[in-house]
Write a structure and sequence with these properties.
alpha/beta, TIM Barrel, 8-stranded parallel β-barrel, 13 helices, 8 strands, disordered N terminus, binds beta-D-mannopyranose
Length: about 375
């Protein structure tokens, strides 16, 4: 064992030395820059599958350790895993969906160590009313948390709780986990307190900047910023720019896209959005992803292959992240969903990529996958 570890250390040192000689700028790269470069290169290999709360619960189970609807269906974990930090702002033990934050913490580290990619969203409670993220009853909420507002100091403590949590995301040895952070998402809709009902475009941009500057000051090297409006269907540049935080503030453009109603209009709208976003991303050197997606409770068995993927395939998209599989409603793949066979086939044809497709498959002398050693 000792010998294996020494050999590995020597190999790593050798690799590092030769890498430094050839490409000296590599050693200065931050975790976020490395993740951006990795995703940029991975998108040439194919579309990554992502899933929210993958290892905490599925359609027919919850909280069992070591389970995953994705793994049980295709024998591999999603390449991208999403988690939500809603509830952290009030020092809750569990997030808004009942997931203990200590499990979120260990799963983020576990997924990173196996070579996976992690994205975080935040559905914070309404800081003016204490209602949920969906409480849009107070139109002064955003103004009240901006500098000078009566809830500003309170919101600063919320942001600090978030950064304190993210600072803990560190394997025992090694560097902090890089995170794709997707705050204040779907802001072109009116259903969240940061949406169109509760703040002006200017206030939204100020909110984003305040939050981002705070987080970046605490975690300067780890965050890839994702700006993710909801499916819009008719973006024009003028409309899109109204809330866009700015090219210096965003590295990944997202689209949250659910098929709530008829298939045809979903396809038309998503295609229109992706055409706009793909063009914008190319012009402005951004990554592109479908940051939430799905159809509620999988009523259409070939939805993945016939509806979603044909729309995505002409565009240069890094990943699509299916929303959570919960017993009340599910969006991701599972043996218990009607889409199981269709999804399995996509995996077989490599139309979707999973963890093992993106993690380096390097084995040490004892046959153990040493991906985690590479990523530490
Ligand atoms: C929504 C729904 C909610 C959930 C929230 C945060 O889309 O799934 O049930 O609380 O996301 O995960």
């Amino acid at each position: 064992m000792k010998k294996t570890i020494l050999l590995l250390l020597a190999a790593t040192l050798l690799a590092t030395t030769s890498c430094q000689r050839e490409t000296p700028k590599f050693q200065y790269r931050t975790q976020s820059e490395k993740l951006i470069a990795r995703m940029d290169s991975l998108r040439n290999n194919g579309l990554l599958y992502g899933h929210q709360d993958d290892t905490f619960y599925g359609i027919t189970w919850q909280w069992d350790a070591g389970r995953s609807d994705t793994h049980e269906l295709v024998g591999d974990y999603p390449a991208v895993m999403g988690f939500d930090l809603g509830g952290l702002e009030r020092s809750e033990k569990n997030n808004l969906d009942g997931v203990p934050f200590d499990r979120i913490e260990s799963e983020i580290i576990a997924h990173y160590k196996r070579g996976g990619i992690v994205t975080l969203s935040w559905h914070p409670r309404n800081p003016a009313t204490n209602g949920s993220a969906w409480d849009v009853s107070d139109t002064t909420v955003v103004a009240s948390i901006l500098p000078g507002g009566k809830n500003h100091e309170r919101f600063v403590t919320w942001m600090r709780k978030l950064t304190n949590f993210m600072k803990k995301l560190k394997p025992v040895r090694g560097r902090s986990v890089p995170i794709i952070l997707r705050p204040f998402h779907e802001a072109n809709g009116g259903w969240f307190w940061w949406g169109t009902k509760c703040c002006t475009d200017e206030q939204y941009k100020q909110l984003w900047a305040m939050f981002q500057d705070f987080v970046n000051a605490e975690l300067p090297n780890n965050i890839v910023w994702s700006y993710s409006p909801n499916l819009q269907g008719n973006w024009t540049e003028e409309e899109f720019m109204r809330r866009y935080p700015g090219n210096d503030r965003v590295q990944l453009l997202g689209c949250d896209a659910y098929q709530w109603e008829d298939e045809k209009s979903f396809i038309t709208q998503l295609d229109a959005d992706l055409e706009f976003l793909d063009h914008f991303a190319r012009e402005n050197h951004k990554l592109l992803a479908v940051t939430e997606c799905g159809i509620r409770n999988s009523p259409t068995p070939d939805w993945w292959s016939r509806v979603l993927l044909p729309v995505l395939s002409p565009y240069s998209i890094c990943y699509c992240l299916a929303w959570r599989n919960w017993h009340v409603e599910h969006f991701g793949a599972s043996v218990d969903a009607s889409t199981a066979d269709d999804f399995r086939e996509l995996k077989a044809k490599r139309k979707l990529l999973f963890l093992k497709d993106i993690a380096p498959q390097i084995y040490d002398a004892s046959g153990r996958n040493s991906a985690e050693i590479i990523w530490l």
